[in-house]
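Hey, can you fold this one?
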Amino acid sequence: MSSPSTRPRALLAAAAVAGLALTGAATTGTASAEALPECGADRLRARVDAVPWVPEPGVRLFAFGVDRTAGPACSIVGGELRDVRFHAEDGSVLDVPLTSSAQPPYEVIERDPAQAFMSAFDTGAGPYPVATVSFTMPALDARLTVPWPSALHGPVRLGALKGQVG
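Sure. Predicted structure:
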């Protein structure tokens, strides 16, 4: 298993491999953010899934997915998910250590779903009894809350919300 000093690099490498393996290369839309209005929270449907394969022993991956619901055309802008918070069953915020590898600039995502990957070790701080996760979209003050699939150990590393090929 990785030593504590190499864990951040291992998490980043695992998330990068997962992103490439699950989505191919990320695409940036050719349209500008001004071409369509950005989807509001009422037009977005989010989910988090545990990724069923292990990129490296002792590392777990989770995929955040955001889709548009039926209605007039609108855009999803990718980038860093903001103000990510993990919640217990009673709604209290859990102090899960989280870092982000996402970097602006934002991109317009033309195909659903937009995805971000998060990696965490099987051991470490915790386990945290996570029931839900909430986050704010990259360029929109829309806060989404979705069920979380399992207990979680920290620290965790979150990648950028991007489009997928396929």
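DSSP finds one helix and eleven strands in the chain. Let me know if you want another pass with a different chain boundary.
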